[in-house]
């Protein structure tokens, strides 16, 4: 075993809160009390609308103090639900490789290097390293987008394709492999753009995926490469709603749009935003509490 990947045992405190504001108050208080290096605090919304708050401590925490801080920030009831445990030392890279089995999504299979040989001959393999947690295909949103992309490509051959918010580049790589043509991919995060380029080269489509750093549709690359016949955007609900107007102005007639990154209860508001811009819903996939939408621009 490579001991450089072995993480030491850590101590964890976790609780679920039904109110976003309370969850953020807890995060703010704990972040303020514990110095950097003493604790790492995170909060995530669950598919059921509740919030999970998790704190990882380098050393065993004073449980009474932590409960008191949570009670002050949220409520006594929230403090009583706090659970403390210890996470054993573990080689997380090795564990993630073992856990991330190949994920089929229509004609596509997302896999790690260790499973390269397990991709069927009649499928298009997309190789993504296990260390890149978001965008490996194991998240419901990525799989939903790939399934909808496969659905669209069975009946249409888009000429101009955009992967907006590309992340690890999975969707751009999938489109490039299936269509054998250039794909524009963008992300607001510079490291993500670099990762997408590296993954495109790893998958043999480095000359087809043009990854750029851009916010929204402001960069000149969008005007130069549009109007788009197909847009894939696996982002978040609020940015998707805000992008409805700018995106609609960069679409060709009859264009398809695949949207994801939204929880099931957020889908109606996103659909409404795009319907107001002339896009009608075609399919709605729900996977593990997450929604993926296929819409089409009115011709």
CATH class of the largest domain: Alpha Beta
- Beta strands, count: 16
Class by alpha and beta content: alpha/beta
Largest sheet: 7 strands, mixed
Fourth CATH level, the homologous superfamily of the largest domain: Vaccinia Virus protein VP39
Q: Give the number of helices.
A: 11
Average pLDDT: 86
**Whole-number radius of gyration?**
21 Å
CATH topology of the largest domain: Rossmann fold
What is the count of distinct domains? 2
Q: What is the 3D shape?
A: globular
N→C terminal distance: 58 Å
Polypeptide structure, described:
With 299 residues, the protein is α/β, with parallel strands linked by helices. It has two domains: 3-92, 2-Layer Sandwich (Alpha-Beta Plaits), CATH 3.30.70.2880; 101-297, Vaccinia Virus protein VP39 (Rossmann fold), CATH 3.40.50. It is built from eleven helices and 16 strands. The protein has helices spanning 20-33, 63-73, 76-80, 92-99, 140-153, 170-179, 190-202, 220-225, 237-242, 244-248, 267-275; strands at 6-7, 10-17, 39-45, 51-57, 83-87, 90-91, 103-105, 108-111, 124-127, 161-164, 183-187, 209-213, 228-234, 251-263, 279-287, 290-297. The protein has a seven-stranded mixed β-sheet with strand order 12-11-10-13-14-16-15, sandwiched between helices. Strand 3 and strand 4 (51-57) form a beta hairpin.
Q: What keyword list fits this structure?
A:
alpha/beta; Alpha-Beta Plaits; Rossmann fold; 2 domains; seven-stranded mixed β-sheet; 16 strands; disordered N terminus
